[in-house]
Amino acid sequence: GLAGRGAEDEAEEYMLCALTQEALRRIHELSPQGLSNISWSIVTLGLTCHASARQFLAGAAQRAARELAEFAPQAIANLCWAVCRLSGHEEAPCAAGFATCVAEHL
Known about the structure:
The chain is mostly helical. It has helices spanning 7-25, 32-44, 51-66, 73-83, 92-104.
């Protein structure tokens, strides 16, 4: 994350975490592309150290596994890339389940 770089960066990280929590709250309202984009952004911004970010990634993986046919190939690729960052965290089984689902549909 951005912590430890100063008050402005800490405020930015707080805001990003609040946005992640809101996205998690609304996860069922998001389009497949929205899930993919937010997942990619969470990892790119280095927010996986926060529980809410990991919970979002796990929730996105679970939803995508159930609705895989609704996801464009690029959205699936972005989600695969993002959820693999859950390795080593308690949410890792969700990533493994998603990877299995994707592999079965190739």
